[in-house]
Write a structure and sequence with these properties.
Elements (H helix, E strand, L loop, with lengths): L1 H17 L5 E3 L14 H10 L2 E7 L3 E3 L19 E3 L2 H12 L2 H4 L2 E5 L9 H11 L6 E6 L3 H5 L11 H13 L3 E4 L13 H10 L5 E3 L6 H6 L6 H11 L3 E4 L5 H5 L8 H9 L4 E2 L11 H6 L2 H5 L3 H14 L3 H8 L1
Parallel strand pairs: 1-2, 2-5, 5-6, 6-7, 7-8, 8-9, 9-10
Antiparallel strand pairs: 3-4
């Protein structure tokens, strides 16, 4: 009997040690999809409650996919057919509207990011300034800004934006002025090149705007790159160097980083990535990158658990929840601390 209860006690102790019950911030969430449609805020609140997701980055999608006159069937995704996508500012109206309808106690868990502008237009900063002044204090960040994004930016009429172009340089100055973090989607390479072809496009703003906190979406990777090339062997050493050189760089680990980088094919955490994240415990954050539908939100966030469990517990909790909150405007952080 004694032995049995001792065994039970041991079993309990072991299971407690492993059940860390993370609380999450989703640092990369799109309230709408590429047609600017959403399941709605109630579904999102349900998914957050069911999965201990305490905070979310709350953004639209800066482009809308066209249902082209010549297409008999309405596409279901931006890649559904060859019709173009176009810059769509009303996405921010949809985000602001949903945010304002939230009860005050829920509103503090939502962190609206403004994204609906053309990053190739040197008037973009003037547009963003108007939006910030229209709803003072509402916007807590800028992005996700789509710069090089393989097939997606190829569908936009005109050139693919560079993260280091003049229009965005003006936007970064504005971000510094308003103390707003910036989330950038900037692919580190093309679908075919096995080298960091576009690295300087992200590195230049990091160097030139030390007062802007940049969140690099998916660490410069994308699903489309992975379809053409497997693991990019230069990602890890590149991040090691950039994190050491630029204290204003933060890394979003969402989906195309989770696999194949954080976890291998068997789902085992990669020791080199564990080492990297442990060396920079304040610089990594998790995201679902869901677009307009929230039924798989919990699954995406819990997908990081094998990796988090292999980190020191304090680091895992920072990555799971705290690091995203720490890049928000200082004013917002002070309100959250109340
Ligand atoms: Zn995204």
């Amino acid at each position: 009997m004694l032995r049995l209860s001792f065994a039970l006690f041991l079993g309990l102790a072991v299971s407690c040690a492993h059940a860390r019950d993370y609380r999450y911030s989703d640092a990369h969430l799109h309230y709408v999809d590429f047609f600017q449609e959403s399941e709605g805020i109630d579904k999102l609140l349900e998914a957050m409650a069911a999965n201990r997701i305490e905070h979310v980055m709350f953004s639209g999608i800066p482009v809308a996919k066209k249902w082209h006159e010549d297409e008999p069937k309405r596409p279901r995704y931006y890649a559904g057919d060859d019709a173009g996508v176009y810059w769509y500012s009303a996405t921010d109206t949809l985000v602001a509207h949903a945010y304002k309808k939230l009860p005050a106690e829920q509103r503090r868990r939502f962190h609206p990011f403004l994204s609906g502008f053309n990053p190739n237009d040197k008037n973009a900063d003037a547009h963003i300034r108007r939006m910030l002044e229209l709803d003072p204090g509402l916007w807590q960040g800028i992005g996700e800004i789509f710069t090089r994004h393989d097939d997606l930016t190829a569908l936009i009429p005109g050139d693919a934006p560079r993260a280091n172009n003049e229009a965005l340089t003006r936007v970064y100055h504005l971000a510094a002025e308003y103390d707003l973090p910036v989330m950038l989607h900037a692919n580190i390479t093309s679908k075919r090149e096995r080298n960091p072809l576009y690295l300087q496009e992200i590195e230049q703003p990091l160097r030139n705007h030390p007062h802007v906190r940049f969140i690099w979406a998916h660490a410069g990777t994308s699903m489309e790159i992975h379809r053409h090339q497997e693991k990019l062997d230069f990602i890890l050493p590149t991040l090691e160097r950039l994190l050491a050189d630029y204290p204003n760089l933060y890394i979003d680990l969402s989906w195309s980083v989770l696999r194949p980088y954080l976890l291998d094919e068997q789902g085992k955490p990669d020791p080199q990535w564990l080492q990297l994240v442990s060396s920079y415990p304040a610089r990594f954050m998790l995201g679902s990158d869901v677009v307009g539908r929230f039924d798989s939100l919990g699954e995406y966030m819990r997908g990081f658990e094998p990796f988090l469990d292999a980190l020191p517990e304090a680091v895992a909790r920072q990555v799971a929840r705290d690091n995203f909150l720490a890049v928000l405007p200082r004013k917002v952080q002070a309100e959250l601390a109340d």
